[in-house]
Amino acid sequence: MSTKLTRLVRYKPSFTERIRTRGVTLIELIMVTALILIISYFSVPSYTNYIIEKRQDEGKQKILEIMKKQNHFKMMTPPYHYTLDLSELGYPLISSAVLSSDENPRFKVTASLCTTPVDMNDIALCVKLRADPIDPLAGDSIWEMQSNEGAVRLVP
């Protein structure tokens, strides 16, 4: 009687046992690959835009930082004017410009007069800071700020 029962009842392996013995099918592999491609299709452009915005913010932040030091210099140093020599603000100069970052510079910041000076007293009125990208092919923008405007703007 027991031999008849064993012939009638078959052993069915569990799902995990079937996976271990069978492996992964080609369709499952294609589906996982397609899912990874779809996710990367939407995430890579967003990450690229994030990196570009981060780089542009670096140029704006550097201009704002230098302009803050320019205003402090004007208030504390007689004859109460801005300076075109950014080394007086504590920045190391490289070919009359300040690099935007110590480890991986992306921008070169320069200071100039807002208008053509009649005499050296015009430096007391206005100074213009400009952040030029070191590598123009990287997609970074040129940023400018004048001390009489108070806002950083994109240069076309």
Main attributes?
3 helices
Describe this structure in words.
With 156 residues, the chain is α+β, with helices and mostly antiparallel strands. Strand 4 (142-146) and strand 5 form a beta hairpin. The model has no long low-confidence stretch (mean pLDDT 77). The chain is built from three helices and five strands; from the N terminus they run αααβββββ.
Give the structure's gist in a few sentences:
With 156 residues, the chain is an alpha+beta fold. It contains three helices and five strands; from the N terminus they run H-H-H-E-E-E-E-E.
> Structural class, judged by helices and strands?
alpha+beta
Please tally the β strands and state the result: 5
Q: Strands of the largest sheet, in order across it?
A: 1-2-3-4-5
Give the helix tally: 3
